[in-house]
């Protein structure tokens, strides 16, 4: 039996999540969602509803604190460079400085090792150059 597709109507979770995603990532987040439309539209919906509609929208942490945690986690994973770049942009968009981003990534050398921190620093360097170039 084939599972039923996710409902296509937008829920309050979806609307709340899309608003939060735009607040953090601007157009970059929307491009990720659009890129999934032809292969996994349900996954795109889940990506908006759960992380951004449910978790990011909770009042216990501000967006800067949340993005600090995400940059640290993605750096520590060591295998999520495209997502790390998106969230470095997001961290900068919600109030982190470049110096804070570098410190967050350097801190991960202690817990995730030098290779993960090096990869994170190179990702940050690319993001900083993109932003300086106005892209």
From TrEMBL:
Carboxymuconolactone decarboxylase-like domain residues: 41-126
Record's protein name: Carboxymuconolactone decarboxylase family protein
Organism from which the protein derives: Leeia speluncae
Lineage: Bacteria, Pseudomonadati, Pseudomonadota, Betaproteobacteria, Neisseriales
